[in-house]
Amino acid sequence: MRKKTDLGRSGEDLAAEFLDSLGHTILFRNFRKSFGELDIISLENDSLHCSEVKTWDMRSGFHPLECFHETKRKRMRKVYYYLLKEVPAFCHLTPSFNLIHITEKKEVRFYSSIF
Fold first, then answer.
1. pTM for the predicted model, two decimal places
2. Architecture of 2-67+95-111 per CATH?
């Protein structure tokens, strides 16, 4: 299990560096509630980006976008609404729910506003 945790952490590090290179300010990493988590929350202009990071081997047989079923989307939205309760200053920002896919070759694929 340790190896999977290390892989996930290194993927999130690459994702954070990528967002930073796009001009995002990283606000939170692993913002958790009992019912869900947002891997990276970043600010860019007037948008609050809530990004799910998947470090994924494409040989698994399906694409990481397939993980964004209705239950996952509901959990991410719920965590986002709790974030707004904790930091009301974010209420005026436009939300963007994203996927950052880190490939087995450490390539970063960014899917913005997927839902």
1. 0.91
2. 3-Layer(aba) Sandwich (3.40)
